[in-house]
Structures are given as C-alpha cells and as structure tokens.
Inverse folding.
C-alpha cells in the first residue's frame, strides 16, 4: 500500500497515461533504431518529470520518494531508457539540494526543475568500476580555480547535459582515501570532450559515453558545498536515491514483461486451450506476479526509509538487489512463455530481456550491494 497524497496520485496517473498513449506505441521502433527520443523527452519536461526531486522555491514542489519511484516505474514500463534519462539528473539535483551553496541552488535548480538544464553524474572511470575510492580524476587548485584532468565512463546524458557532477580527487595524500574526494560541478567547455558513445546490449536511445577531461578549468565556486573532502559521503547519500530509482526501473521492466505474458498466455492456444491453463505456464505467471509484488513493496519500503531522513543505504541496496534480480528472472520467464516469439524482435519481451541486466550492474553492481547490506547489518547489530 502506498501513501501518496492526491496530487502525487494524479502525477502517477498522468505519467501512466502518457506512457500508454505516447511511449508504448513508439518505443519498439525508437529502440531498434537506437534513436534519441527527443519528442518524448520534451513531453517529460512538460509533465514535470525532471523536477520531481526539486522543492520550492526552485521548482513546482518535490514529491515523496514513493511517488518518484512509481513515476520511474511507469516510465520504465513504457521504455526503460526514458527513466534513465531522468535518473542521474535527479541524483545531481538531490546533491545540489542537500549540499549545494545557496548560489549553486539558485543557479542550477530552477532550470533543472523544468528540464531546460539537464545534468549527468560522472563517477565511474575506465578500469575502476565500483571502487570509487580508487578514482584517478584530479581537481587541483590553481589560483581561484580548479583544473581537472582524468576520464570518466558510462556517463548517461553525457552529450546533452549542461552540467556534470564530477567525482574528483582534491587531496591525493588524504588518509583515508575517501577523505580526499570532492564533487565538482562542471559545465562542458574547453578540455571537456565526450570521446565516444559506448555500444550496449540494451538501454538504447539514451547515450552512455566516455568523457575525457584535459585541464578543464572551473572556478572554486564549482566545488559542491563549502569544503573539500566531503564528496564521497555526499555521493553515497545521492546514490541512495539513485539506487531506489534503478530499483524502480527494474519494477517497470518486470511489470511490462508480466503484462505482455498475461496477455499472450490468454490469446495463445496449445492442445486446445489457452496456454495459461497448462500448469507449467500458470506456475510461471504465479511466480512472476508474486516476485514482482514483493519487489515493489521492498522498493516502497526503501523509499519511506529514505524520506525519514535516516541513513537508507542498506534499504536502498536491498531494493536495488532484489528488484533487479526479480526483473531479470521475470524477463527470462516472459521469453519462455512466448516461446519462439520471445526471441523475435517483433515482440517487446526480447527488449525487456536485454534491458534487465543494466539494473543488475548499474549504480553499483549487485555484488557491491551485498557488501553494503552485510556491512550495515553488522554495524546495526553489534555483538554486545
């Protein structure tokens, strides 16, 4: 059961209608062409999707994290790539809202709320993967500026972002390593090169790129917040909402796969009856629906924990872990139910099967999530 107010319920319903009317009829052709969904993105801006995490006075008013999760799920039910377009943007907006200076908030948040300014976050580096403490991108002081050198990879929105939150080393000798990490808010300019688009199994239409930073110069005021060395902790808080968002994407993919399977199992006949009446197919459907219902409740629980203001990395990690693995299993079962047609690009289930793995490896792999969960379990349950 969700706890949305009337306006939030209307927002979810509005996005659901948009997905059914505009997204689902267009998604297959756009995805197969790997075409950027410009028209759909513009409609998402008008719906207010890019400002869901931005409160007044900078935006129209932020929604609860439960509402944010359900909107994300609806977008992903239509096409997961659309939810990806607003995922990193929302994390950056959250970072600025929580930790930005008043000048940073006033400069960026109003334009981010409307989608006029799109943002991306740049954490991962080639060869670095999930070990964020080992990043090599450096922002060194030079007079009243930072000069940034390094590279980042798997950056969603890289070519269309007007603002990028860069995780950088500002103190190479700080012990421990994460104590020397800061976030710098950089706008594309000289030395900032989007070097290539990465080819992908799924998650088509939205670019994922490598960025090369060659002596990119930004003012000292580009440091997120007031002090260096707080970037790792800031980003960990930002990734809580990021992981809830990725978990919600998984819910949308799983729901789409279940919906298509339910429809196909009633229309397709074998041995004189609809295939859902065959026990093996009926069991698949029962398990798919049960797993999805459990995953959704876990995601909404994580959303409530996040909104409580308390640390929610364990809950967000649990939601991301369970929902993504659930989506992968449901997508596979949908292919089984569709048989040979599940392998055909004329049916959407093959897209769900290609999109689902992203949530397993994105925003911190599920192996990392298990580490986070185990560490938090021990910290919250010490032996007395």
């Amino acid at each position: 059961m969700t706890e949305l107010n009337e306006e939030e319920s209307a927002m979810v319903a509005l996005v659901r209608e948009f997905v059914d009317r505009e997204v689902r009829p267009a998604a297959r052709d756009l995805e197969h062409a790997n075409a950027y969904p410009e028209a759909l993105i513009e409609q998402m801006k008008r719906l207010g999707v890019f400002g869901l995490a931005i409160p007044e006075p900078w935006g129209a008013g932020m929604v609860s994290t439960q509402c944010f999760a359900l909107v994300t799920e609806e977008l992903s039910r239509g096409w997961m790539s659309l939810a990806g377009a607003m995922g990193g943007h929302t994390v950056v907006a959250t970072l600025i809202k929580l930790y930005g200076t008043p000048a940073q908030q006033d400069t960026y948040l109003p334009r981010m709320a409307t989608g006029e300014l799109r943002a991306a976050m740049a954490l991962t580096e080639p060869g670095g993967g999930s070990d964020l403490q080992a990043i090599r991108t450096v922002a060194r002081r030079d007079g009243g500026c930072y000069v940034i050198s390094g590279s980042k990879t798997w950056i969603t929105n890289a070519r269309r972002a007007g603002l990028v939150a860069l995780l950088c080393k500002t103190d190479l000798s700080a012990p421990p390593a994460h104590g020397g990490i800061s976030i710098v808010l950089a706008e594309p300019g000289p030395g900032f090169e989007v070097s290539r688009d990465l080819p992908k199994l799924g998650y088509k239409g939205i670019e994922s790129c490598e960025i090369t930073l060659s002596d990119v110069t930004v003012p000292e005021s580009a440091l997120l917040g007031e002090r260096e060395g707080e970037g790792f902790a800031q980003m960990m808080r930002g990734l809580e909402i990021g992981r809830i968002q990725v978990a919600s994407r998984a819910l949308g993919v799983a729901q789409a796969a279940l919906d298509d399977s339910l429809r196909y199992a009633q229309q397709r006949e074998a041995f004189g009856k609809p295939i859902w009446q065959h026990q093996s197919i009926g069991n698949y459907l029962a398990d798919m629906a049960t797993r999805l219902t459990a995953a959704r409740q876990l995601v909404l629980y994580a959303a409530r924990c996040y909104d409580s203001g308390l640390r929610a990395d364990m809950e967000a990690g649990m939601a991301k872990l369970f929902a993504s693995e659930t989506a992968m299993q449901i997508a596979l079962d949908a292919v089984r139910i569709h048989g040979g047609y599940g392998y055909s690009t004329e049916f959407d289930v093959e897209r769900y099967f290609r999109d689902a793995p992203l949530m397993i490896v994105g925003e911190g792999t599920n192996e990392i999530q298990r580490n986070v969960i185990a560490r938090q379990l021990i910290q919250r349950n010490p032996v007395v």
User: Anything to note?
Assistant: The first strand starts at residue 119 and ends at 122. The chain has ten helices and nine strands. Residues 28 and 348 are 7 Å apart (CA to CA). The first helix runs from residue 6 to 33.
